[in-house]
Amino acid sequence: METTIKATNLTKSFGDFTAVDKLNFEVEKGEIFGFLGANGAGKTTAMKMLIGISKPSAGDAVVAGYQVSNQAELVKKNIGYMSQKFALYDDLNIKENIQFFGGIYGLDSKSIEVKYNRVVENLGLQDYAKQLVRSLPLGWKQKLAFSVALLHQPKIVFLDEPTGGVDPVTRRQFWELIYEAANQGTTIFVTTHYMDEAEYCDRISIMVEGEIKALDTPKVLKKEFGVSSLNDVFLKLAR
């Protein structure tokens, strides 16, 4: 299998405080990799390094074939990213958002038009294409933001709490989009605080105080800790 993310002793310090301490892990092509941790555990700091917006204090990571320490701009061009807060422009309509981000990703106008039609059709948004994005329900916004993150067919998509605040039905629909992308070979790196969602991941890592304390499939971790749910695994590690 092709490795799309490889962290080697990845570390981030702020003065005397070490927020992320010597992370070592690999993620394979097409894998759905869950990155879990309580607030303050260091997962957001780690993700910022992986997506090329924060330089490691020590160690390094290779993401989509590029080193985050000295090839951050190339990392950014070869990944998709959906932030915890909605990542599109509320005062533009769907087509204008896709045109804008497609241009940022370097797509030509013909490709943007093709991808716009595909996104609108796949999400069933034909009747809403001219509405400002602010008028769309949150669930549709999130699914649209994910689709936009895939416009340039990146090798990896990073999702930071992508289903926060949406209803269970929309969460399930969102995960169907994730599975579809993974089946097409896109690596999905996702943070979530929903333990039932973590069950959908191929593997998960759990961070505690800047370190990865557990990393394996949900099934193996539950067996290893002698519990029936990932939430119980999480609670044991957090003690």
UniProtKB/TrEMBL annotation:
Pfam families: ABC_tran. SUPFAM superfamilies: P-loop containing nucleoside triphosphate hydrolases. InterPro entries: AAA+_ATPase (IPR003593), ABC_transporter-like_ATP-bd (IPR003439), P-loop_NTPase (IPR027417). Residues 5-234 form the ABC transporter domain. It comes from the Bacteria. PROSITE patterns: ABC_TRANSPORTER_2. Keywords: ATP-binding, Nucleotide-binding. This is ABC transporter domain-containing protein.
